[in-house]
Design brief:
With about 230 residues, this protein is of the alpha/beta class. It contains eight helices and five strands. Helix 1 packs across helix 8 and helix 4 packs across helix 7.
Length: about 230
């Protein structure tokens, strides 16, 4: 059976990843249910919605790691410990969700993958790219996405949206996922710059969508990139 497709979304919090993943999943569901003919690699997914997951999270273990790493009360977490937790979450997700889905020919849409660790811990925490990529090879079998959609609206706009969202979620649910948004702007600037570096290094895999675009404009660019990948 042909391997399924692995598509990741990257960007700062507040960049619109969750919205775009939801819209792409709906578009793909319609495509897979309604197309009279599909490329061979998509046949195993005919009539089946793509699997949508996230990192950290997406498994029972990952959700516990997410609660720890994103909670603003975890301020004493050392950068190396933070990175180790991200890779523990990722290794579990690959074993439990991603590899089984791909091996059965399914499409996986993932909100963040190792590019996030390189951007946030490698860039933001200034641990460097080398250790992130070494751990990815060691712990993740060097699994690479077929396509990465990198959303990079202006830095200030992303941060403002993320902080407003976190305040709203905290008020409505009591859940706290705002630890990274408490960092100084210089941290987020390093993350933003590392993301651009990743895009330049991997032009065949990473589609960079930047600028202050509205939701529909971003979705149109996402669909164009995914249609090219899938051959539809």
């Amino acid at each position: 059976m042909p391997r399924g497709y692995f598509i990741t979304f990257e960007g700062l919090d507040g960049s619109g990843k969750s919205t775009q993943i939801s819209k792409l999943a709906a578009w793909m569901k319609t495509l897979l249910e309604g197309a009279s003919a599909l490329p061979e690699r998509l046949e195993a997914s005919r009539g089946i919605a793509p699997i949508v997951t996230r990192q950290p999270g997406g498994t029972a273990t990952g959700d516990r790691i997410r609660a720890l790493t994103l909670d603003s009360r975890s301020q004493g977490l050392a950068p190396m410990a933070e990175m180790a937790l991200m890779f523990a979450d990722r290794a579990q997700a690959i074993a439990e969700v991603i590899h089984p889905a791909l091996d059965s020919g399914r499409i996986v849409l993932c909100d963040r993958f190792t590019d996030s660790t390189e951007a946030y811990q490698g860039g933001g925490r200034e641990l460097g790219s080398a250790i992130v990529l070494d751990l990815h090879r060691l712990l993740c079998g060097n699994l690479q996405p077929d396509l990465t959609l990198l959303l990079l609206p202006p830095l200030e706009a992303s941060l403002a949206r993320a902080r407003r969202r976190n305040d709203r979620v905290r008020a409505q649910t009591g859940r706290d996922e705002g630890r990274f948004e408490l960092e100084q702007d210089a941290f987020h600037r390093r993350v933003w710059e590392m993301y651009r570096e990743i895009a330049l290094r991997h032009p065949a895999r990473v589609v960079l969508i930047e600028g202050e675009l509205n939701v529909d404009e971003v979705h149109a660019r996402v669909v164009t990139a995914v249609s090219k990948l899938l051959g539809v």
